[in-house]
Structure formats: structure tokens, C-alpha cells
Specification:
It contains 16 helices and 22 strands. It is globular and about 80 Å long. By secondary structure, it is of the alpha+beta class.
């Protein structure tokens, strides 16, 4: 300090004035940099909003986003579809086109709006829509069987350059929601074989019709994270975004996301168990639940779970409240029909009734034994299979492991021996295809389509189907089909009640809980608003109304 003062005294008056001016500019610059440590700013580009994700960025392509939530989030800003979900009003609205529906509810006709252009300046046509749905999604070698199933048997016709027609074999009130898929540009991808679309360079530098476009290919960083930068599209047909630049950083694990709090302004899918670990300084929090549930699926083809009394006994032995209290969740689920009030379908925990049902099913406790057996001497020993989240999502691994262990303890209390097996995602999918388990602890997400067909119809009890309990019920099948063909809300409600009652009596699974999440966003961001989220990407439903202050 003394050296600094002696040096300053040696300066002339003019030199002191210049040094003082320099010090003021330096201090002001440092203050601005410190204040805007999250937002990048330049007069010509506006501020950059940075959001942290968990997972890998692989396919910035709307027809492959089922495999990565990070891909789904980013792609929803780059692409748009014939229909969009409006999270602010909780409704499905027309987006790129207007539509009509025939009186028999079989034919949907869409007419593209005027002024639609791809982000490279080429005009959008019905040819692009036909290419997306008929050429790609309906192709036998298209590598997304779940999406392809939504358009199985649908006749697609290009009427003229602006009109496309979808004709169904039978009425399906859920079909309209399937048309939220982002449209693909035929002039870019038309020469790429459908089987090679999932590895095409387009997935890194996509061209869409949404409010934002990519600034370049996504980048892999030295710490294992990945980054993609977006800017507001000048070709967008809707309201132009106020935030001109977006950056997404995808971290390998949620632990790394939390550890890098200083690098992002927002983060979605923060589980309740992690909420208290995040530095919430200058962050607003929004709690939400999605239409998804975690359940204990019973393999009804298992030798020991084929009888209704056995499955009922196990469901009576499981104390859901104790599980939710232990893992820190709040929303208990008792039916897979999430449109219904869960309070009407409560399966009461009762160990005495569980033991009575096991006795009636022929399973008794021999004196001195802890595991029940039948007349043939078979032990009531079952296998529970779950996903191992170690290394990718430690908080989720803790939740899954604790849930399985609590179920193991609760079943042991009524004389049922349960072994627990945990597998990585790839191995688990192979086990699910062959239904190689007695019980499966697993989660299912309904997303935009609350149709239960894929999950509970008998036709879906196949290797590629999602009927994880191999549940076969003609009564349920008929109700599911009727719900699909019903457009009257009061009729639908009555059918849903009947289906919920049927599933509850058949006990193909024990429905446990819906996870709670938080969306964290910098307090400098205003306009974030929604009524209901069906998918995490819906938080961007009104992003054109967001502002930075």
C-alpha cells in the first residue's frame, strides 16, 4: 500500500487523472462482470439464459426424443408440430395447421397455415408432413417402435401442397395428441434411408420450424458434460422470443448438476430428495408432478402369482405410506388411471387380511419356519427386479433401493421370501422383454397420451409391448377400447371408473407413488407460468413470453 501511495505521488496531475479514470473503468467493468456472472451480454445479441440438464445430448430430432429427456427438452424449442400442448391452459391446440374432424371421428384433415418456413428459409409444405408421418414414422425399419405404434393402421394422404389427411380404422380420442411430434424437413432428410436417420449428422445440426435454432453442433466438454447453444429464429411464424440466446449444459449425473450450480440459471427435474441440497440463492422454485407412476408389477404368468388371492395378499401386505415417508414423496397412487381421484381407489394395508388371503390361496406357515409353503412343499419365494441407477443417478438409486428393501421387509412379515436383483438399463430391458421376473419395480410415463391401451390391453403382453404384468382381461380390454372411441367426457368418466374398478379387483400391480419434482429458475427471469406439465419440456410452453431483467 505504501509503495502504491509513493508511486501515485510521483505522478503528474495529468497522470493521476488518467490513472484514476482507469481505476474507475476497471472497477465498473469488474462490477458488471460479477453482476452478470450467469448472463452473457452484448448489445447485439441480448443475454444468454443457461439451463442445466442431466443425461446425454444425442438426437436433436423430435422422432427420437423418447430415449433422452435432454433431447426432448432442446428439440421442443427447435421443432414444432401440427398440434401443441399449452401448459398454461392445459389444452391441446392447433399449431402449424388448422384442422377438421369428420362426423364419424375417423378422418382428421389438417391445412397448413400461411407463412411457414424452415429455419434455412425454405417454405414448409404438406410434403414435409407426409414425409414425417408416412415415410419415416410408419416405415417398418423406423427405429422407434413406440412412436410407430401410434400410427399403426392409419392411412395418410397428401391432398395438396398445404393439406394432409389422416384416416383411422377406428375412432381414437387420443389420436389428436399424437400429432404434437415435430415435423421433419424432407428437403434435407429425404435422401437419407429411414434406418440411418438415428445416426444422421442432422441430429447434431437440425433445422426446424420452432422459436429457436441451433448455432452449431453440440459439444462435448472435458468434464463429461455436453453443451448446445440456441438463438432465436428469425423465421419463426409465432410470437418472437424475448430471450435471444439459450445454452443447455447436460451433465452426466444429477450430483454433477448440483455441484455446478454456478454455471446455470435454471434446472428441471430436481427431485424432492435433492431440493434441500441446492443453493437456492436468487432462484425461484416451482413444484410439479407429471402423469407418471412407479409401481410393483406382478407377473401374472409367474407360477406363484397366477391366482388373484396371492396378488391381493401381497398388495395388502405393502404399506405404501411407510414407503412414501421413508423416501420423502407425498403423492400416493392407487390406480394407473391418473385422470381419476386417487382417493377413491385406496387399497388398505392390512397384514391380517394379507395372511388370511395367503392361507386361502394354499400358502401356510409351518411351525418353526419363516417362509410359507404349499402342500407340494414349494416355498413362497419370489424375485423382485429393479433398475440399478448407480453411477448415473445416485439419489434415484437410493430411492429405488430403499423402496425395494422396504417391500422385502413388509412381505417377510407375512411369510413371503423376496430376493432383490438390480440391473443396468440395457440388461433390465432384456429381462423385461422376456418377462423374467416375479415382480418388477418400474416407472411408467403417460406423457401426452393418457391412453391405457399400450400398458394394460392384452394385445400388449408381448416382448415389444408395455403390458409388464402380462395382464389378460377381456373385461378390461373392452373398456379400454370403448374409452379410446369415446369423445363425450361424461361417458369417458364412467368408463374410466369401471376400468379402474376392474384393474383394482384383478390386482395386476401395486401402484405406489408419483414422484414430485422442482423446476428452479433465476429470479431475473419472469413470465415462467403453467397450469399443468405433462412432460418436463412443457415448461417452455410459453417461453416466448419469458423475459430477463
Amino acid at each position: 500500500m505504501n509503495l502504491f501511495l509513493r508511486t501515485l505521488k510521483s505522478f503528474s496531475r495529468k497522470e493521476r487523472w488518467v490513472a484514476g479514470a482507469f481505476l474507475i473503468v476497471f472497477t465498473a467493468s469488474l462490477t458488471v462482470l460479477t453482476f452478470d456472472r450467469f448472463f452473457e451480454w452484448s448489445p447485439d445479441q441480448g443475454r444468454t439464459y443457461t439451463e442445466g440438464l442431466v443425461g446425454q445430448i444425442v438426437h436433436l430430432n423430435p422422432v427420437f426424443t423418447e430415449f433422452s429427456e435432454a433431447d426432448a427438452d432442446i428439440s421442443s424449442l427447435i421443432f414444432s408440430g401440427l398440434v401443441k400442448y399449452n401448459a398454461v391452459t392445459d389444452s391441446f391446440d392447433e399449431d402449424m395447421a388448422t384442422h377438421t374432424l369428420s362426423e364419424d371421428h375417423l378422418t382428421y384433415t389438417f391445412t397448413l397455415k400461411n407463412g411457414l418456413y424452415w429455419q434455412d428459409g425454405v417454405e414448409v409444405s404438406a410434403d414435409d408432413v407426409y414425409y414425417t408421418y408416412a415415410t419415416v414414422i410408419q416405415a417398418p425399419d423406423f427405429k422407434n417402435s413406440l412412436l410407430r405404434a401410434n400410427f399403426d393402421g392409419v392411412k395418410i394422404e397428401e391432398v395438396d401442397t398445404r393439406t394432409i389427411r389422416f384416416t383411422l380404422n377406428s375412432a381414437n380420442s387420443f389420436f389428436f395428441t399424437s400429432l404434437t411430434i415435430g415435423i421433419l424437413p424432407k428437403h434435407i432428410l429425404g435422401e437419407t434411408p429411414v434406418a440411418e436417420l438415428d445416426t444422421a449428422p442432422f441430429n447434431q445440426t437440425p433445422v426446424g420450424t420452432g422459436p429457436y435454432q441451433v448455432d452449431g453442433p453440440y459439444e462435448s466438454n472435458g468434464d463429461g458434460s455436453m453443451t448446445v447453444n440456441l438463438s432465436a429464429s428469425t423465421q419463426y411464424y409465432g410470437e418472437k422470443p424475448t430471450i435471444e440466446k439459450l445454452r443447455f449444459i447436460a451433465y452426466p449425473t444429477v450430483t454433477e448438476l448440483i455441484a455446478n450450480r454456478s454455471t446455470w440459471n435454471g434446472a428441471a427435474r430436481v427431485r424432492q430428495s435433492l431440493f434441500n441440497e441446492v443453493d437456492l440463492t436468487d432462484l425461484s422454485s416451482f413444484q410439479y408432478e407429471l402423469p407418471q407412476y412407479n409401481a410393483l408389477f406382478f407377473n401374472t404368468d409367474s407360477p406363484f402369482l397366477g391366482k388373484n388371492k396371492e396378488r391381493l395378499a401381497l398388495s395388502k401386505a405393502i404399506d405404501k405410506k411407510a414407503i412414501l415417508d421413508a423416501i420423502g414423496y407425498k403423492v400416493q397412487i392407487d390406480t394407473p388411471l391418473l385422470e381419476l381421484s386417487q382417493d377413491d381407489w385406496i387399497n388398505t394395508f392390512n397384514t391380517e387380511e394379507a395372511q388370511g388371503a395367503l392361507h386361502d390361496a394354499g400358502w401356510d406357515l409351518v411351525e418353526g419356519e419363516t417362509v410359507r409353503s404349499n402342500e407340494e412343499g414349494d416355498k413362497l419365494s419370489l424375485r423382485l427386479v429393479r433398475r440399478d441407477f448407480s453411477g448415473s443417478n445416485e439419489p434415484q438409486e437410493e430411492t429405488s433401493k430403499k423402496t425395494a428393501e422396504l417391500i422385502q421387509e413388509q412381505l417377510a412379515a407375512v411369510g413371503v421370501e423376496l430376493s432383490i436383483e438390480a440391473y443396468n438399463e440395457a440388461d433390465l430391458q432384456a429381462i423385461i422383454q422376456t418377462r423374467d421376473y416375479d415382480m418388477l419395480l418400474y416407472g411408467q410415463s403417460l406423457g401426452y397420451n393418457l391412453d391405457t391401451f399400450s400398458y394394460w390391453h392384452s394385445s400388449q403382453a408381448t416382448e415389444t409391448g408395455l403390458n409388464l404384468s402380462n395382464y389378460q382381461s377381456p373385461s378390461s380390454d373392452l373398456l379400454i377400447e370403448k374409452i379410446r372411441g369415446t369423445f363425450d367426457e361424461s361417458d369417458r368418466q364412467a368408463l374410466l371408473d369401471d376400468l379402474a374398478d376392474t384393474i383394482s379387483k384383478d390386482v395386476p400391480a401395486v401402484f405406489l407413488y408419483t414422484p414430485s419434482y422442482y423446476y428452479l429458475v433465476d429470479t431475473k427471469v419472469t413470465g415462467v407460468n403453467w397450469q399443468k406439465l405433462l412432460l418436463p419440456k412443457d415448461r417452455f410452453s410459453n417461453i416466448t413470453g419469458w423475459e430477463l431483467h
